Amino acid sequence: MGLASRKNMIRRAYLAALPLLLAGATAEAQIAPKDASYSCAAEFAGGIRYNEQTKRWEGPTLKPEAKFVMRMRHVRSIKRKNFRGKDEPAQVFDVTITKADSNTPLPCYSWQVPSRSVVLGGVDMSFGCFGALHEHQFDLKTNRFLISSTAGYIFNTDNNNDTPIVIGGTCTKIDPARVGSKR
Question: Distance between CA 50 and CA 97 in Å, rounded?
Fold first, then answer.
């Protein structure tokens, strides 16, 4: 058997196995239909603020102080169309954000649908929502988050009452046995 024949055999074997590998990766990456909680802490922050002395806006680095718990309550399992138009399983969650200095969970409203629920499906492990006066983005694969608030600067008010900010950090999944217990 010549070199060209061996290369063709290897190529055919690879192409035959590829759909099985991709199907396994897709199934493994799907979000589980169960409640989950994450403890999140900021690692960096930046924004803009008005400097009263210079009468100019500046872009300082800020102290990252945000700590919160993000809870995902499973609502139901659904089927939805993926970007190829094929049905895929998806999970619907109600998401809340509880700041570290509070016992009051605040809803995080979905950007995807006009409701409180967030939909995750297929290999999509990230979502965005609006709550606690900020936009939140989470990626459950990387356990990273971004929080942003873009109000303030554009309203022609030169003060620091409502300044834009971006905060980033990581989340750690909380063991279900610890959810609701004091730490």
Answer: 29
Condensed to tens digits (0 to 9), the pLDDT of residues 127-162 reads 889 887 789 999 999 999 999 988 778 877 888 887
pLDDT score of 161: 82
If asked whether residues 125 and 46 sit together in one domain, one would say: yes
Give tens-digit pLDDT for 88-100: 888 889 999 999 9
Residue 134 maps to a domain: yes
Range of the domain at 75: 31-173
Shared-domain flag, residues 117 and 44: yes
> Are 86 and 149 in a shared domain?
yes
**Structure tokens, 71:** 């809870």
| Domain total in the chain | 2
Same domain flag for 4 and 49: no
